[in-house]
């Protein structure tokens, strides 16, 4: 297994913070008038890269760490440190829903969340699908030219997303035969998987590719942002969801630029100032999976405390985001002292 790459740890922390920020903005949008709500939704579109990027990141790390084959205990460890915490937080969130009156049947709530994936932990189902695809397909992907799966999966994922948004018959077909959370459908995620797989397999080549075509990638990113803006204001596609078809290209491009930028930053961590920043981000990164699973539950209660700040939108969002992250980290520090705490918080890592 290869050593961890620091910029990927830093990226994990940034994505984690971005997810909490998106949900904090949603809290504000639900309490705002229509004009402010529209502005918030528009701004959120440019943060939607976070969840797909986090899912991609899991495959980049896996593909880079295990170039040729997976270890024998691969699935056992991920069931223990990823699936079991997912189930435990699914139970906690189901109990919360019963307590606040959103559900009156605990079994139905558990089934809806844990099995169907209809809650904020849905991304874990996609990540496990990535593990399964990697297990069965990685040897095949290594042997064929990368442009073939990249182009073919891009066509599949983009076509599926466009049809899902614009063709009622297609949407109704999938709703009828796929009882799970629609975000977990693999067709959305095939292109992300293939890109992440090859980035991990050829990581240093990938970094040189970005450096060589950096200007082109930035220009393409600007075009992707214009496309998102056009779809929002002209086409009226205002839904804030990570599986928007105009988010696919945007996510992959910003994922590339973030990794490259963080690689440059990592090379400058010799000074004391940068070491402090690096340590803080790694501290969050090593607890990111727990933050993902727990933050929404804590945010629900914290937002009620911060209602007096609602007249100052920026202050409300930044305070809610900060307090939620701090609260999850404080709770983490308490839980990690308990026996078998890794079944709740995931695998413990030492902060660098």
Automatic annotation (TrEMBL):
Where does the Acyltransferase domain start and stop, copy by copy? Answer: 6-332
**How the protein sits in the membrane?**
Multi-pass membrane protein
Q: Which GO terms describe its cellular component?
A: plasma membrane
Instruction: Indicate the transmembrane segments per the record.
Output: 12-30, 42-62, 82-99, 119-137, 144-165, 185-200, 212-228, 248-266, 287-306, 312-335
Q: Which domain of life is it from?
A: Bacteria
* GO MF, one annotated term: O-acetyltransferase activity
A single Pfam family it belongs to is Acyl_transf_3
InterPro entries to which the protein is assigned, alphabetical: Acyl_transf_3_dom
As for subcellular location, the record says: Cell membrane
Name its GO BP terms in alphabetical order: enterobacterial common antigen biosynthetic process
Q: Which UniProt keywords apply?
A: Acyltransferase, Cell membrane, Membrane, Transferase, Transmembrane, Transmembrane helix
The entry's family comment says: Belongs to the acyltransferase 3 family.
PANTHER family registered for this protein in UniProt: O-ACETYLTRANSFERASE WECH
Question: What's the protein called, per UniProt?
Answer: Membrane-bound acyltransferase YfiQ involved in biofilm formation
